[in-house]
Amino acid sequence: MSATPRGFDGKRIVSFFMQASKKIPFDDPRVLAGVRILYVVSNLLIAGLYLYVQQQVNKKKDMTVIKYVEPPPMGSQEEPKPVTTTIHAYDLQQLKTLFKGQLMGVGMMAVMHLYFKYTNPLLIQSIIPLKGAFESNLVKIHVLGQPASGDLKRPWKQSGMMGMQGGEIKTDKKSIEEAERSGRGGAKEE
C-alpha cells in the first residue's frame, strides 16, 4: 500500500503547477523573490529531513548483514557483483545517493534560472522534490515509522534514471552463491 493519498500523483501536481506558473507574474520582483524564497525553503526542508534521517540511521546503527547481487551497469560486459553489507551502511549509501540527487537538482535549477533566466521551473521544483523526499524509502522507514518489509525490504529496487543498471538486484541464495563463485569477488562494505 502506498503512503501517497489516492489521486495525489506526480502528473497531476506537475500539471497543476505548470498551469499555475503560467498565471504568476514573475516579472514582478516581489513575486519572483517570493518564489525564490519558496525554492530555498523547500530545499532546506529536504536537507533537514535527510539530516534527520542520517541521525536516525546512526542512532539505530543496525548491523544486520544483508547480501545481494548488484547488476552491472547498463551496456557493460561486467558480471553481476555480489555485495555484502550491513543495513546501517546500506542506508547511509542510499542517503548519500539522495543527497547527490538533490544537489544535482539544485545545480541544474541554478543554471536554468540564473544563466538561462527561466523562472517557471522554480515553482514546480519547490514542490516536486519535497514530495519525492517524503516518498523515499529511507523517510518512510526512519521518519514515518513504516516497517522495513514488503516493498521497503532492503535492498530496494532501483527506479528511474538513478538506477542505471542492467537489471534487478537479486537477493536469492542461488544468485548470491553463483556471483560469489564467478571469481569476480565482490564488494564488502563496512
Question: Can you give me a brief rundown of this structure?
Answer:
By secondary structure, the protein is mainly α.
Provide a count of the helices. Answer: 6
Helical content stands at 55-70%
The mean pLDDT is 84
List the strand order in the largest sheet. Answer: 1-2-3
Q: List segments where confidence is low: pLDDT < 50 over at least 5 consecutive residues.
A: none
The major sheet is characterized as: 3 strands, mixed
Radius of gyration over alpha carbons? 20 Å
Question: How does the helix and strand content classify structurally?
Answer: mainly alpha
SSE pattern: HHEEHHHHE
- Terminal CA distance reads 32 Å
Strand content: 5-15%
Q: Oligomer, anyone?
A: single chain
Which outline best applies? elongated
Description:
It is a single chain. The protein has 190 residues and is mainly alpha-helical. Helix content is 55%, strand content 7%. It contains six helices and three strands, in the order ααββααααβ. It has helices at residues 10-23, 29-60, 87-115, 120-134, 137-142, 173-181, and strands at residues 65-70, 81-86, 187-188. It has a three-stranded mixed β-sheet. Helix 2 (29-60) packs antiparallel against helix 3 (87-115) and helix 3 (87-115) packs antiparallel against helix 4. It is elongated and about 65 Å long. 15% of the residues are buried. The model has no long low-confidence stretch (mean pLDDT 84).
